[in-house]
């Protein structure tokens, strides 16, 4: 399909973006047309925002072709997500964030592709551009990296004014604030960005020049790139063969970013427990203090600590018949400890789990000839019996071979993670042909572990049920040996630690296996490294010395000899104290580098990165290997949390004293349809990134009890967001936030009481697919979305202002508690299963409709009757090729 000329784009910009007087189209309508494959909308959006996106990609990537690939992948992501953007007027800042993430993925792809090749020089005018005053790709990328770390309100102003080139007046209109407020945000952002760039080593004059020139460098998108991108989007939107129409690198990068967005919105209940919800990424290092077995926050022994709760229930099959002999277990991780309680169902399928503590609990059921099931609930005295309905069993199978494709017999295999927990108990060994088979597997993905003596094991191997047998190769480990000495004297260092890892694109991007640290006594060492990933590396740490990292060990065919001469350097020191002053002894301390820490129930779920763990002594002090500021020191304890940010560089690291601040607590009740709602998943997280440690994400999840009540004991003080979660696809353990939701202020050492739902007015209705589609099959109802019209309701983070809502299999839906105002309701019918012929992600809607809903001032509240929208039939979404 030929690309249209720039004249068409210019006319559409005039019609769509510059007031819309001819066509009367607002931003939401433009995005709707973009999502439906309107080429005029493609051209208009690309011409208006393309220069900003291309400049962002060029700053992040040295190679012009890589920058163009990132540009196209960014708009592929927009094609996938355009229909779900809640604030279309903020499209520019949203695209800037997407471009940064896409460029990061393209950069990683390029690094893997060119490990043994010199990186191609950038075309003249891109590398070392005088306009930018920057002479390295790292510094060019630093601009966008630091912009993305700004507070949201300041970041939007910077993108709209400095990167998109909009006037202060237009920016104020889009942000719904005064021109003076825009100027204030820009001044604050400039000071922050300049300071951060200077700390990263940019000369003050160059930092100021680079910020001023960033927006000026937004040249028009070259016509071939503009036309090629429009043609690519048209092919993707019209369900043409995607693999042939889109370069693999572009498709891979866009899919990876979309998967990340979906993971941020559709958080599994179990993933909440593991801290895999919405994550805040930061480049600043962290130091985290953890107590391994902390006491209660108040030091008391309450009844809730006693193991006096019994959970009873029944297990039946999908026809309602009792399942006898099924194993029922309570707990979240059975890899290194026994379940909290176990039982076996009797002839009637009944069970009783005794000796549990009151509070959140995960129950897992496994029965011969049935797929397992899992339930997260709240154990409480006198709770109602729970019931499990086990579905038909599925099979997982595979074959393990060596590097010569010969079978490995007797290799152990075990289930590891499923739905975010480690509660499936299954293990086996391969037969003489290297094959294994699990006949009582679940219907969804399981992560399994594979290993064999003398081979590098595999963890978290994705095992899909009922899939064709997959051959899994295993390789021998790679041996490294060497010596560790003092660089000045040449004398051997006799005590140090070896940390295996894998090299990333840059020196600070290495991925360290911190759970496999080896303590060594003696100047010589031998270490076996896994060959399951490319570019293994080794880090050496010795007290009083700067850490050292080996070269990339990219030839695993033979032994490698690596010697480490270490130079002396002071370590980071500090102490941790309890809220009432005494030192906190035996506290584990974590030095965290690039990446993030997820905090769940007051404990960190540690991710890979350049961190190292130590322990405080009786006086509460600790010592950790040095790192370059800025870094944050974060202490987590049952009694509270504290953090300190170290900004200054140069000289010996300053000692840090952390005095813990008591946690807050949240108690609440969920009401749906005017009544308490039992058994519902509730998620809590920080409402924004303000006043929290850099690089730390905090969140948790629980389930309402029979009275609809819930509680969170270890809550980070500040504004928190509470929301209900529902399963998006039955049996797959993927959840999404839906209405109702609210934001509450939590104070240190206090309990905040909330009611979720029961306010505003409910809205109900039913979706009826178009007649032809209803008869054809291969579709399902997607989540609906409700969003307030501009100026029609309170801020989006406040109660009763919208969000996603579930649509049942029969098309019925209920939107809980909308505050008075005017809303847009979006309803969609999508392919099921995902259809690769309908766009690169197989989810281009088959039918969709947007309906305006007005909630009057009265009646509202728990007794208000629902506003019935009746039966709604979405419009069929046809591909352009079929029109």
Automatic annotation (TrEMBL):
A GO BP entry is: DNA-templated transcription initiation
Instruction: Give residue ranges for domain RNA polymerase sigma-70 region.
Output: 48-110
Keywords per UniProt: Membrane, Sigma factor, Transcription, Transcription regulation, Transmembrane, Transmembrane helix
**Which CDD domains does this chain map to?**
Sigma70_r4
Q: Domain RNA polymerase sigma factor 70 region 4 type spans what residues?
A: 142-193
* Disordered as annotated region, ranges: 856-883
Key word Membrane present in the record? yes
Pfam families membership: CarboxypepD_reg, Sigma70_r2, Sigma70_r4_2
* Chain ranges passing through the membrane: 268-290
Superkingdom of the source species: Bacteria
GO MF, one example? DNA binding
Its family? Answer: Belongs to the sigma-70 factor family. ECF subfamily.
Q: What is this protein called?
A: ECF RNA polymerase sigma-E factor
- Taxonomic source organism: Aquisphaera giovannonii
Taxon lineage: Bacteria, Pseudomonadati, Planctomycetota, Planctomycetia, Isosphaerales
């Amino acid at each position: 399909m030929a690309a249209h000329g720039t004249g068409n784009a210019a006319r559409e910009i005039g019609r769509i973006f510059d007031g819309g007087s001819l066509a009367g189209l607002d931003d939401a309508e433009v995005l709707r047309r973009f999502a439906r494959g309107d080429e005029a909308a493609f051209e208009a959006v690309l011409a208006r925002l393309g220069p900003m996106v291309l400049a962002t990609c060029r700053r992040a990537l040295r190679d012009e072709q890589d920058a163009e690939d990132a540009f196209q992948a960014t708009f592929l992501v927009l094609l996938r997500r355009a229909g779900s953007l809640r604030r279309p007027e903020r499209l520019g800042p949203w695209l800037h964030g997407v471009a940064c993430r896409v460029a990061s993925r393209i950069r990683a792809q390029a690094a893997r592709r060119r490990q043994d090749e010199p990186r191609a020089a950038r075309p003249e005018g891109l590398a070392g551009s005088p306009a930018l005053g920057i002479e390295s790709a790292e510094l060019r990328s630093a601009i966008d990296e630091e912009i993305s770390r700004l507070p949201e309100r300041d970041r939007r102003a910077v993108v709209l004014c400095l990167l998109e080139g909009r006037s202060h007046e237009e920016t104020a209109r889009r942000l719904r604030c005064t021109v003076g407020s825009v100027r204030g945000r820009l001044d604050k952002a400039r000071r922050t960005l300049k300071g951060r760039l200077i700390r990263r080593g940019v000369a003050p004059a160059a930092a100021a020049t680079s910020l001023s020139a960033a927006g000026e460098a937004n040249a028009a998108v070259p016509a071939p790139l503009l036309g090629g991108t429009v043609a690519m989007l048209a092919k993707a939107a019209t369900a043409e063969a995607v693999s042939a129409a889109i370069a693999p690198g572009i498709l891979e990068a866009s899919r990876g970013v979309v998967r990340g967005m979906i993971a941020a919105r559709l958080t599994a209940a179990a993933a909440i427990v593991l801290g895999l919800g919405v994550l805040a990424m930061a480049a600043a290092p962290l130091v985290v203090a953890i107590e391994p077995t902390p006491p209660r926050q108040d030091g008391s022994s309450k009844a809730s600590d006693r193991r006096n709760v019994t959970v009873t229930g029944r297990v039946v099959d999908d026809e309602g018949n009792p399942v006898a002999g099924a194993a029922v277990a309570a707990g979240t991780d059975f890899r290194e400890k026994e379940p909290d309680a176990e039982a076996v169902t009797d002839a009637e399928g009944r069970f009783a789990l005794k000796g549990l503590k009151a509070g959140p609990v995960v129950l897992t059921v496994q029965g011969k000839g049935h797929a397992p099931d899992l339930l997260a609930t709240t154990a409480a005295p006198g709770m109602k019996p729970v019931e499990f309905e086990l579905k038909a069993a599925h099979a997982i199978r595979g074959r393990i071979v060596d590097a010569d494709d010969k079978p490995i017999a007797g290799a152990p295999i075990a289930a590891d993670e499923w739905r975010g927990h480690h509660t499936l108990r299954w293990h086996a060994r391969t037969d003489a042909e290297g094959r294994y088979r699990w006949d009582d597997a679940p219907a969804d993905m399981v992560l399994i572990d594979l290993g064999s003596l003398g081979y590098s094991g595999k963890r978290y191997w994705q095992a899909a049920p009922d899939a064709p047998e997959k051959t899994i190769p295993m390789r021998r480990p790679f041996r490294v040996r060497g010596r560790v000495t003092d660089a000045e004297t040449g004398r051997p260092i006799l005590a140090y630690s070896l940390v295996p890892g894998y090299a990333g694109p840059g020196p600070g991007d290495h991925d360290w296996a911190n759970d496999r640290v080896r303590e060594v006594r003696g100047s010589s060492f031998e270490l076996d490294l896994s060959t399951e990933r490319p570019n293994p590396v080794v880090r050496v740490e010795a007290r009083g010395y700067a850490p050292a990292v080996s070269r990339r060990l990219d030839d695993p065919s033979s032994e490698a000899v690596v010697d480490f001469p270490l130079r002396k350097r002071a370590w980071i020191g500090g102490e941790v104290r309890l809220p009432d002053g005494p030192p906190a002894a035996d506290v584990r301390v974590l030095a965290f580098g690039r990446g993030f820490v997820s905090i769940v129930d007051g404990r960190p779920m540690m991710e890979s990165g350049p961190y190292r763990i130590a322990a405080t002594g009786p006086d509460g002090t600790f010592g950790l290997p040095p790192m370059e500021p800025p870094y944050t020191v974060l202490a987590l304890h049952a009694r509270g949390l504290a953090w300190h940010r170290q900004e200054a560089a140069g000289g010996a690291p300053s000692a840090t004293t952390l005095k813990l601040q008591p946690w807050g607590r949240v108690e609440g009740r969920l009401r749906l349809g005017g009544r308490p709602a039992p058994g519902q998943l509730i998620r809590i997280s920080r409402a924004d990134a303000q006043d929290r440690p850099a690089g730390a994400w905090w969140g948790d999840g629980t389930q309402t009890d029979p009275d609809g009540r819930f509680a969170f004991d270890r809550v980070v003080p500040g504004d928190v967001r509470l929301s209900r979660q529902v399963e998006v696809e039955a049996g797959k353990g993927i959840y999404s936030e839906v209405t109702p939701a609210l934001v509450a202020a939590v104070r240190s050492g206090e309990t905040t009481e909330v009611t979720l739902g029961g306010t505003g007015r409910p809205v109900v209705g039913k979706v009826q697919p178009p007649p032809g589609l209803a008869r054809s099959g291969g579709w399902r109802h997607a989540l609906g979305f409700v969003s307030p019209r501009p100026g029609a309701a309170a801020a989006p983070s406040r109660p009763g202002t919208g969000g996603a809502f579930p649509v049942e299999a029969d098309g019925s839906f209920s939107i809980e508690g909308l505050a008075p105002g005017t809303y847009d309701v979006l309803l969609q019918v999508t392919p099921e299963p995902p259809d690769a012929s309908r766009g690169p992600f197989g989810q281009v809607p088959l039918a969709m409709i947007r309906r305006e809903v007005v909630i009057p001032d009265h009646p509202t509240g728990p007794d208000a009757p629902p506003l019935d929208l009746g039966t709604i039939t979405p419009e069929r979404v046809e591909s352009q090729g079929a029109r």
